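Q: Structure tokens for this one, please.
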Amino acid sequence: MMSSNHFNLIDVMALLQKKWKQIAVFVCIVLAITTITVFLLPQQFKSTAIVIPANPTLADKSRLFNNNIQSLYSFYGNGDDAEVLYGLANLDTVYYQLIDQFKLVDYYESKGENEFIKKKHALKSLKEDMPIQKNEFSQLKISVWNKDKEQAALIANTSVDIIQQVEQATWKKIYQTELEKTNQSITALEKDFKILSDSIQASYGNDHTPHSVDLLAIKRENIIEQIKQYNKSVNELQLAIATTPPTLYVIEKAQPASIAERPAKAEVLIAAFFASLIFGIIATLIYSRKQNM
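A: Here is the predicted structure, written as tokens:
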């Protein structure tokens, strides 16, 4: 047998009919406060840029000199390339460049003892307002929320340019390092060539046999061939640096939004209505249960 301080469905309905005015007043108060808050909050606009990674093999310098290899390359990257691009897009380097370029420390009104701390706070806020998502089609969606619709689109598109520059700079640095090492090798070979040439010249005035002179000449010819090969590599590397391919392709540029999407007034008010109604009912039932204990 149930205790008398437990409600049954009839008791609940009777209680709600009796207390509906109090519940309605509570719901109205919550809706009024929510409405005022929602309309006082600044509007925010959302702009989204959609990009897809390029095939990293396009950065291979051999593509510039072999048409057969070049024709085998796909322009677009795969899921692994999208992961790499996603990692680059989430680098603090990208966010800090945006913070400096668009003066986002002032926009977010970041507080701190020095500029570094202010930028750290702005970085946290920007990451919240700039979600980056990767979908099943290996596409990256870079979205930006901002109180200025024009600036939202500009930040999204600028972030794409920065990501492109960061990855291209990585490839250029690799080729630049290889170019410097190749030039050093050429310099060393030229020194060896001069030493051998001097030795051959000196041999004609000494008692060296023609056989030894021939060996020196062969070594010198080998050095000449090596220098030719290295010079060819230098030309290839210089061309690869000058013609670094894109690391991503823009599928859809960010455009200024026509309407503000934050705060979502209708959704917030509907949620507030149901939440306050449920809370009001539960609070009424609990209070009445305690009164009857």
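A few notes: The chain has a mean pLDDT of 84. The chain has two domains: 8-41+264-293, 42-262.
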